[in-house]
Amino acid sequence: MLGLGEVLAVGKNSKFQPGQFVAYLHYGAFSEYVVVDDGEGILVPSQDAAFMSIALSGLTASLAFEKEGDLKPGKNVLVTAAAGGAGQFAVQIAKLVGCHVIGTFFRPEKAEFLTSLGCDRTVNYREEKLDEVLKKEYPKGVDVVYEGVGKEMFDAALKNIAEFDRIIVLGQIAAYGDNDSKKQFSELLTASEVSIPLALLVKSASLRGFWLTSYMDDFPRHIQKLSELYEQGKIQVNTDKGGTAENGPFVGLEKIVDALGHMYARKNVGKVIVELH
């Protein structure tokens, strides 16, 4: 889990100092106090919750595109779950490069948010079939796909990938909420109804997996870059603290279950944050 807080005490030879703010990846982040190793902490400018979103979700989008995306001006980029914690960054990073961005979403209230981020085309996949939209409006295909949903979203991307281009797979949130980890893994391997080898073969296209912790040496550089863009007003960071949620706001340990339920129901706009006091 990802957490962010003020450093209260440090061990001998620590790179951090009391009073600094650190984002960290560590089990037990839903705690009032936590002990983490130096290597698990990332220095951030303040306790603004936006920096926690940057330190995980922004980092994921930024690194995925740098390592696997080959973004260039004018490319068509498809971002699934575009209004989510990482999706919001993927949309904005692609727009900063000069790409045309298509963003998918689940609930109608997210359309305006995605437009504000710069999406050129938004697709509510409860009202429109993504596969049909892409075939009709992007007959040459999409160049880069930032895909973390799975199932029908992955199939639509696979059917409509452009020649020589790529799909970046970051997860399968369609399986979130299922407590059976073996079932989740099985679904991930058998999710597509399309022949993956054949679909890639005939387009000379590629499917690229992205796992964030494979690139830990690059974390500081990307977090610094994204933090600067945020402070300069060049990107926006939306954090969902449950202000409009039925069981919100998400303040205190007892609200963790409500926050996770909010996310699993795909109601969140931006990164879900639980504040602990």
Automatic annotation (TrEMBL):
N-terminal signal peptide: none
InterPro entries attached to this UniProt entry: ADH-like_C, ER, GroES-like_sf, NAD(P)-bd_dom_sf, Quin_OxRdtase/zeta-crystal_CS, Zn-ADH-like_protein
Residue ranges of domain Enoyl reductase (ER) in the record: 3-274
Name listed for the protein in its UniProt record: Prostaglandin reductase-3-like
Organism encoding this protein: Aplysia californica (California sea hare)
Encoding gene (name): LOC101864402
